[in-house]
Structures are given as C-alpha cells and as structure tokens.
Specification:
Largest sheet: 5 strands, mixed
CATH class of the largest domain: Alpha Beta
Helix content: 40-55%
Number of domains: 4
Strand content: 5-15%
Amino acid sequence: MGDLVAALSLAGVGQGDLVGLMVTRDGALAATMNGAEWAGPAADVAVADAQVRPRWAMWSQETARTLVGQGIRLATGWDIAAVHRLLFGGWRADPAYAWACLHGQRPDQVPVVAGAPDLFSAADDAPDAPALGAAAALEAAGLQLASLTEQGGGRRISTARCESTAELLCAELSADGLPVNRAAAERLLAEITGPRPHGPSDAAAIRAERDARVLRHAPAGAANDLRSPVQVKALLAAAGIDVPDTRAGRLERFRESSPLVAALLEWRKAERIATTYGYSWLDEHLGADGRLRGTWTGSDGAAGRMTASSGLHNMPAVLRQAVLAEDGHAFVRADLGQIEPRVLAAVSGDGALAAATAADDMYLPVAAELGVDRPTAKVAMIAAMYGQTTGHGGVAARRMRAAYPVAMGYLDEADRSAQAGQDLRTYGGRLLRMSGGGNEAARGRYGRNAVVQGAAAELFKMWAVTVRARSAPFGARIVLCLHDELLLQVPAARAEEVAALVGGCLAEASRRWAGRPGGAGSRVRFIADISVAGSWAEAKG
C-alpha cells in the first residue's frame, strides 16, 4: 500500500521501465516493480503514469479497459497478449498459454482453458506457473523483451511497444464509440429499406414491397424468390439473361441494358442493409449518447490488422452520411495512399521502386518504367503482391521482374517459403504460421501477400499511436481505425491544426518504422489524403 510514485522512486523505476500491473478481484490495482509491490486505487496509477511514465506490463487489453472505464488512459504499455502473438503467431494468448510458451512448452501442448480465460482461472490450468498476477506479468514481459532482443532487438522491440500501445487505443475506441446521429441514421434506413416495422406482419409487408420493385420487371410466371440464388438465376434466364452464377460482378454489365438487373442490384444493397445494418442493428449497438460501440482488438490474428465488432469495419458507405461530428467538433479524416506498394518498396529494399514513391501517384513512374499505361501498371503491382500468374495481371506482373527485381525477389522468396510450409515473419517480426494444411499454391499466394499486408498493418498502427499521443493536447480523439484510414473527432477550432499534425505524424511514424537511415526503406515516401469535414461521408469525398 502507499503512494505509487514514491514506490516507483524507491524501486529505481524511471521512464520506460517495465512495471507489472493488474486489476485485483476487488477492482483495485496491483503493481510489481524490481521486487517491490504496491496495491491501491486506479487514481494513483494515473498520477504515476503522468509523473514517472513507466511501461505498464499487463496480461491483456482487459486491464486497460478497466482503467479507461474509470477515466484513466495510460500513455504506454507492454501488452503480453499482443507481444505473444508477435512472437508465436496465431490468436490464442491467454495468460497461462503465453506463460507456458515463454517457458519452453510447445503451443500445441498447452491445454485450452474451458470458457473465457481470465487472470484468475488461468493459473489453475498451468500447474507449474506462479499465480499469474502482476509479478508474473512483469516476469513474462521481461522474457518477451529478452526474446525480441535475441531476435535482433531494434525494430522488433519497437513493433512490440507499438502493438501494445495499439491495444490501449483499442480499449479507448471500445469505450468511446463512433459518433452516429440516430435521427439521420433512421432517415437513411427509411429511404433504403422502408419505415421501421411495427411487428412481424408489418415487417413482412415492407419486405414484400421491397421485393415488388424488382419483380415488376420480371416476366409473368417467372421464379420470384429473390433470396434463392437458384430462383434468381431462373428468373434471369426467363428474362433472356443466361449467366453461370448471380454474383454482382457477373451481373454488373447488364445494369444499363436490363431494368430487371438494375433493380435486382439495388435490391441487394437494400436487403443487406435491412438484414444486417437495419433498425435492430442500430438499436443494439447505438447508445443513448449517440455513440456506436463495438469491441476492438489490435490484431486479427493473421497479418495483424486492427479489427472491430458490431459492423464498424463493414458499414455500408451510404450509412456514413449519419456519422456526424458532435456539436462544436469536426472530423479529421486521413487515409493512407497506395500503402501496400509503398510498403513493398520499403520492406524489400528495392531502390528503384523506392524512387517511384517520390511521386504522389507512384503508378505513373512505374508505368513509365514498364512501358505501359497507368491502369496496366496498377494491375502489374497488384498481381505481383497477390501472386496472379495468368491473364492480364499475370502478363503485367512478369514485366515487373525486369524493372524491380529486388521487390519481386522478396515476394518470390515469401511465396516459396510459404509453399514449403515454412513460417514467415513480417518486417516488424510478427510470426505468420504457414505450417498448416491447404493447397501449396494458395499458401504461397497468401504468404507473399501477408508479408506486405502485415508490414502495412504495423506501419498503420505506428502512425495511429503517434497520432494518439500527439493529438491528445488538442482535445482530439481517434474514433475509428478502418484498414488504412483514421477518423478523429476534434474541437472545430483546432481542426486545421490537427489535420496538419496528422500529416506530420505520418512522416514521424514512417521514419521510426522504416528503420536504418540511408537504406532504401528510409527513402520511401508515404502519403495520406487528409480532410476536415462535419460528416464521415463528406470527409470521405
């Protein structure tokens, strides 16, 4: 017990030093540092974080969520679960599992904890482990740091710190939510799917009316179940449109010539919103405070992208019109441009491709180098990263080998290793498991793309956590991380300042992420489209 700042000082803990931290059963906080222990209220942790700035070692994001719920946002941390996923790959990262792996037990030998593991039940399933509290968290973090140091340190340690801070951001995103105007959202739903139904019979009538907008273009007596692919195919055949399947991409070319197809494609958009993003979705996830909330995590378990539940990552574009900044605020939206080819230039060390990134549109110098037009150059780049070897993309990708042999060699090596079942690591050190089953060619394509996507995810998170730190004094909060896009809500009077700051943060983050000055990676230019607006749709342009 006692003053945490004083305890840290007596233990010789300074800025950046690891301190084990966990929430106890009674909701208090417990910390361990250099052999000393402390227990007390969360408010003391907030003071120590501001005055000493240690790196809090926590078993998972759950501790940060507890603190955020009490109004406390830590500056930095060491998230054992997040770092475990870097070191060992996969998704599972409960305390007992992470502890066992760090102590030499093979991942496939660690029993799965029945139900949702927590800090207390986990200890019972690992008989050789100490009670998995703050002291064990500190020890586990130290072992992880030692392992990263043995693997080369530097960039890998930086990635671990970034991934850990991204989990702090995720805890905040989960608590804060995305500003959504309920009245605007309900107006959009009414326009797209019909009015809010009052009971099952009303819902059925509205659904039938939505179907009728398509079926009025159908031949008499034709199949009429629009939710059955077999009947839709028969319906189209009756109208003289013979297609092997009814996928939207297949039907798009008939949109202009066939009112039936045009109505069907619009019906599908409305049906998806009605069934997945309709009134029940809004009622379930939009709080009384006008915030749409989901659960965020810093890694999808594969290449490492941030993900969210509640449809936050798949919201139909039309509903972005209801994502409105709150009174006195504005949105700053920033979207990374051509991120994957620029990342490929950096991680491969291809000087020629790095030179192309000096252009705002790097596909133009690539096109000039390949002797093709811009659309073909874009196809060539995408085909190279996704392993397309046939058709137009395959022909274009083969031209890449002569122009950018270093980048292509990097992708090819990842492809060969993945096909052979050899695990890969991203630029920042995340383990990508390739030793499972599956078709060799498909595994190779996945491997060559995963090393690029994984590195892009690492750069994005480095940017996001830099923005989080630098924009906080302006009263700004990140409210959405969508693939390569950041959305911040900021006081309207500071919006332009924050927009400029976000661009500066990208330059800062990319320098830190790229590593060694003078290398090809440090010469890569990263760009972002940054705008200020009152709605997400307006900012998206």
